[in-house]
């Protein structure tokens, strides 16, 4: 699952809880299902990308992801949640998100699936680093250490100086950075905006932007490919809703680590469809990144709990 797909509205940050107690088993099952769906979408994107331009694939991905999301919004009667007080923030978040999406889809066309997924695991490192200048958060020695360890994992994977660290690796890292920047935007927007609004304006911006460019890149798809392009959007939308439900059911520290099962699916799809197997550097680097990422998630979760307790105590005074 590429970092772009984890941008399924930064659910770990935004999703409100529906109950007072976590349902760990439900959250884990939903997360595993969401990752399986997103991984199937990634593989489908890579499969069609040889014959169709990135702009066209992104257009179908964005347009048909609208349908399951709109269905849920209409079913729940939450049209009022689409009102916004920060249109400029939505536009910035949407444009950066679209940049990340297009970059990842471009890399999917040329890179082994597992290699790209492994590089995308660097997203939590960038989020933590960006939270310092953009959100004014303080990062202690432990998280700085985790950041440095994670950066070593990235270096192991891309092997600078060996010829592997080429343009595609740079684009993949840049896309991961853009995704991290999206999460920072989302954290800010979540203070005043609803989940529905954040998803809606991102999807709308993506459809309009790629739709305007589509006539210059259009390649008429065959009927089977048209069905697959539509399925890419529908699967992406359903996965987005499933991941949101997962983060509503259980805490971030329980659910988030299961995002890394994307590597399992990437290896399976990559081997079965293209005969790709990751090199030793991808396995070692991914393991280092996963370990540092899980530590950062747990550390930030614990700090969040402490801040919430402190705020409650302050309110009682």
Automatic annotation (TrEMBL):
Keyword Transit peptide belongs to the record: no
Membrane topology annotation: Multi-pass membrane protein
Highest taxon above the source species: Bacteria
Pfam families (alphabetical): EamA
Domain EamA: 26-158, 169-296
Membrane-traversing stretches: 27-48, 54-74, 95-111, 117-134, 141-158, 164-186, 198-220, 226-247, 254-274, 280-297
SUPFAM superfamilies found in the cross-reference section: Multidrug resistance efflux transporter EmrE
Alphabetized UniProt keyword annotations: Membrane, Transmembrane, Transmembrane helix
Any one GO CC term of the record: membrane
Subcellular location: Membrane
PANTHER family: ACYL-MALONYL CONDENSING ENZYME-RELATED, SOLUTE CARRIER FAMILY 35 MEMBER G1
Family: Belongs to the drug/metabolite transporter (DMT) superfamily. 10 TMS drug/metabolite exporter (DME) (TC 2.A.7.3) family.
Entry protein name: Drug/metabolite transporter (DMT)-like permease
Annotated source species: Limibacillus halophilus
